[in-house]
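Quick one, T. Sequence first:
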Amino acid sequence: MKTVMKYNFCGNSGVQLPAISLGLWHNFGSVDPYDTAKEMVLRAFDAGICHFDLANNYGPVPGSAEENFGRILRENLSKHRDEMFISSKAGHAMWPGVYGDGSSRKNLIASCDQSLRRMGLDYVDVFYSHRYDGRTPIEETMQALVDIVRSGKALYAGISKYPTHLQQQCYDYLREHDVPCLLSQYPANMFKRGAIAKTSSSNLAVAAENGSGFICFSPLAQGLLTTKYFNGIPASSRAGRPTGFLQEQQVTQERVEAARQLNAIAEQRGQTLPQMALAWLLHDSRVTSVIVGTSSVAQLEDNLLTLDHLEFSVEELQQIDNILSLDGLAM
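Structure tokens:
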């Protein structure tokens, strides 16, 4: 039976996103094989993944993921732009000098213009403030998003990784200026549960209360929620690379053992561990989508099979919770 993509409405909007989105954070830069990147994007689109998540600094080198994605669009998907939902972000270090980093109006508007040029687009579907920089007033950053939307350079505004005490301020400002926050993006997985904790003050709860969609990145904990570290750290893995975001010291004995126990539950369910980890996030109806980052078409195909088994029994959820409550797992 062919896996069928599932689509979820994004908060209180009329926008639908695929349950699984493709992120271009890793494996789509200038240091990566272009043909593999192209194959993954095209296979994702054919499978119903219409949402592609980028940022100005994705690479390496920074900006190269957007350049490669723009090339794929131009050469293979130019007729399908209106079938696609494309996002970008700005806020992390991107170019030299004091204006190439942070959440200022100067940085966000310049970054949006640069991203559009790299991808060859007239607009992105959603443009995010990638982070709170600890300095720029919320009003300045949110007004920049409002003006980017009103200029037609983005259709919607989003926020990423804002602490909960500032998250509400973002929603209030955007709503008062008639550009409600469409999407809130946070890291969330079995080992990093703070953003999706079952409390009224979690990032997920605050987003849902304000009608914002919620999208999770790093759903596999940078590969810790796979079987690749069961027998050490492969040189080709993220933890094995000197430039990898996952550090070797994060591959702890406690997390590897927990992954082994979770893998046993996944096998009983007829799933791989990554499939179960993705399904576990999507089990909460407030989660709009999860962003997967793949290094091959085969890995993408495995992730897509998640959609064939999204339900959990009460017993399975309790078993998983018992494992995740062990000490030393939180990231």
